[in-house]
């Protein structure tokens, strides 16, 4: 095993211990030691008992030997059972504990990694690497077996050492020589090494089989999400795609089952080879020990002790080799975990805190900003320079892919610029404390999420809420009447995932909740990416008509494909290919040739209909 193969696994175990589960690891270590030693207690004392019987020892001595063996066996078994009970109380939920570690990392890593497909590939590999106990359970089980086998080998060597070292100087012959002992040792080592190579070879074949079915397992997970979603099922049913999905899932399930059967067959063949090697070792050891007893070099009881000890040692060595092979097989998964945990954390190096209060003014400046997404050389924002002051309502328009949403992501520091810098009140935003800077922003993204929490918790973003402020925010967002119909009031759950009394709100109602959440935050900057995309025309009109009431004198930035919203804004930025190609008020831009007038004229017929 390479150094990094071991270190990656210890990183995983260390993180698990630091998460508060050190007791599980310590219990696993104790179980390894006890289970490694326990089988030899009976072996050693049985040899003593046979020698005592052969010598004609009194019954009392025989009884003491038997009770000692039984007592030590029971003591080890009880201690192992107690540790196992403590271990299993936590170990049964180790997959959930593992997901807790992964989720904690997801919450703290830089946002750019969340949109990187490689991150999700690693995450899928880690989550699906092991059994129901996950990758951590798999690694802990490997190392528990490793130390158990190592303990058994050390114990067996101590017990069986005299078999190889005892010689009778008064006798001659090959069996009474060091050469015979060396030859037996070489035979045992050779068979164990052969078993190890078989484990490695079959382990690689099993991993290749697992990799072959990984894509199909991902596909089945994706389809499972479709089956469980009532919203997605609507499209399946209306477009007659159920048969297509069923055929694809059946085909993927068949391929997965084929690979699972192949893995089971490989595991069975591997076990047969291991058992055969162990049986041959036992045969050679018993033959060697029996002949040495026949020559009077060891006692009859020693034959049982030494031979049984060496057989157990050979089994432990085979187990050790198998575990090493298993550790090496699982090492790539742990390497994925090591890479995942090393992904950069959120950029929080800044220490400055922006000062603001009622009536505070801010000046925002984009200074020759360029940006391309990680893994791509294509610039989404190109040499952008602009500035604006707070207190204005700004619209950001342009065709799809023009850089509008990326502009907002950079302003929100979800990504840092590739070149140039963004300043707020003359300070590079990277110099601000990340959390303090985020307090300046209230954002409603186009792909917003309302969670399966209580309505009030969703709006306040916390379990502690100011109910009066929540109701005011709902009122400004146009949900006051809907809120009055909820039996549990602000404590009504969104959806029925966690509470049967929850309410399935419509898409438009959820979007209004997202707007209310932004209003409740009461931040100096309000940013809305397609804020009315899921609203009907009447609700859309209500939102824009109550625009001033919602945001007051705050700075408001809107991304919208519906240019009707631009009439409510004093400043309009027209994006194209990562640059601002036009800027001005609605009246100014509508009088000029350019993209804004082109977009406006394309939609004007619908505005006239609404105005009528």
Automatic annotation (TrEMBL):
Domain ABC transmembrane type-1 intervals: 146-329
Subcellular location: Cell membrane
SUPFAM superfamilies reported for this sequence: ABC transporter transmembrane region, P-loop containing nucleoside triphosphate hydrolases
Predominant place of localization: membrane
Protein keywords: ATP-binding, Membrane, Nucleotide-binding, Transmembrane, Transmembrane helix
Transmembrane domains' residue ranges: 24-50, 62-83, 146-165, 177-196, 276-295
Recorded GO MF terms: ABC-type transporter activity; ATP binding; ATP hydrolysis activity; ATPase-coupled lipid transmembrane transporter activity
InterPro entries hit by this protein: AAA+_ATPase, ABC1_TM_dom, ABC1_TM_sf, ABC_transporter-like_ATP-bd, ABC_transporter-like_CS, P-loop_NTPase, Type_1_exporter
Family matches, as Pfam families: ABC_tran
Occurrences of domain ABC transporter (ranges): 364-602
Cellular component terms (Gene Ontology): plasma membrane
Membrane disposition: Multi-pass membrane protein
Protein name: ABC transporter ATP-binding protein/permease
Species this chain originates from: Candidatus Eisenbergiella merdipullorum
């Amino acid at each position: 095993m390479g150094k990094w193969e071991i270190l990656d696994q210890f990183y995983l175990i260390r993180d698990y211990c630091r998460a508060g589960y050190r007791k599980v690891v310590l219990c696993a270590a104790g179980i390894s030691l006890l289970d490694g030693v326990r089988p030899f207690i009976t072996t050693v004392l049985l040899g003593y008992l046979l020698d005592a019987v052969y010598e004609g020892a009194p019954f009392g001595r025989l009884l003491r030997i038997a009770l000692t063996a039984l007592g030590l066996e029971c003591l080890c078994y009880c201690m192992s059972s107690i540790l196992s009970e403590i271990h299993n109380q936590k170990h049964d939920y180790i997959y959930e504990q593992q997901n807790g570690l992964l989720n904690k990392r997801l919450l703290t890593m830089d946002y750019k990694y969340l949109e990187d497909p490689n991150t999700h590939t690693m995450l899928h590999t880690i989550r699906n690497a092991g059994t129901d106990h996950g990758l951590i359970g798999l690694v802990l089980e490997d190392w528990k077996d490793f130390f158990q086998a190592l303990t058994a080998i050390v114990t067996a060597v101590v017990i069986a050492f005299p078999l190889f070292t005892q010689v009778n100087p008064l006798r001659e012959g090959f069996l009474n020589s060091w050469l015979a002992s060396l030859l037996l040792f070489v035979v045992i080592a050779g068979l164990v090494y052969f078993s190890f190579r078989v484990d490695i070879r079959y382990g690689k074949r099993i991993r290749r089989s697992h990799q072959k079915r990984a894509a199909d397992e991902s596909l089945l997970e994706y389809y499972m999400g479709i089956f469980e979603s009532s919203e997605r099922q609507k499209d399946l049913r209306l477009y007659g795609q159920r048969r297509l999905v069923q055929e694809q899932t059946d085909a993927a399930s068949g391929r997965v089952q084929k690979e699972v059967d192949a893995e089971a067959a490989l595991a069975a063949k591997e076990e047969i080879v291991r058992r055969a090697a162990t049986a041959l070792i036992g045969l050679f050891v018993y033959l060697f020990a029996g002949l040495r007893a026949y020559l009077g070099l060891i006692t009859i009881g020693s034959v049982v002790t030494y031979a049984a000890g060496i057989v157990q040692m050979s089994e432990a060595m085979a187990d050790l080799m198998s575990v090493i092979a298993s550790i090496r097989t699982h090492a790539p998964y742990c390497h994925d975990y090591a890479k995942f945990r090393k992904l950069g954390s959120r950029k929080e190096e800044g220490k400055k805190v922006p000062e603001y209060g009622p009536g505070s003014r801010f000046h925002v400046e984009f200074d020759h900003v360029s940006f391309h997404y990680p893994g791509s050389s294509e610039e989404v924002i190109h040499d952008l320079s602009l500035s604006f002051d707070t207190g204005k309502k700004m619209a950001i328009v342009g065709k799809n892919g023009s850089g509008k949403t990326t502009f907002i992501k950079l302003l929100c520091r979800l990504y840092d610029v590739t070149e140039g810098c963004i300043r707020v009140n003359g300070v590079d935003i990277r110099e601000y404390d990340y959390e303090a800077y985020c307090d300046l922003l209230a954002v409603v993204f186009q792909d917003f999420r309302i969670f399966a929490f209580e309505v009030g918790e969703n709006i306040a973003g916390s379990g502690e809420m100011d109910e009066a402020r929540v109701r005011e925010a709902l009122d400004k967002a146009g949900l006051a009447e809907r809120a009055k119909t909820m039996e549990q009031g602000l404590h009504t759950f969104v959806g029925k995932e966690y509470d049967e009394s929850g309410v399935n709100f419509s898409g438009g109602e959820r979007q209004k909740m997202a707007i209310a959440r932004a209003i409740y935050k009461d931040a100096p900057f309000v940013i809305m990416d397609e804020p009315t995309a899921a609203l009907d025309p009447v609700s859309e009109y209500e939102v824009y008509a109550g625009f001033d009431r919602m945001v007051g004198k705050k700075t408001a930035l809107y991304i919208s494909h519906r240019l009707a919203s631009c009439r409510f804004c004093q400043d309009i930025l027209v994006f194209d290919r990562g640059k601002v190609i036009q800027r001005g008020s609605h009246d100014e831009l509508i009088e000029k040739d350019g993209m804004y007038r082109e977009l406006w004229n394309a939609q004007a017929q619908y505005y006239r209909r609404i105005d009528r």
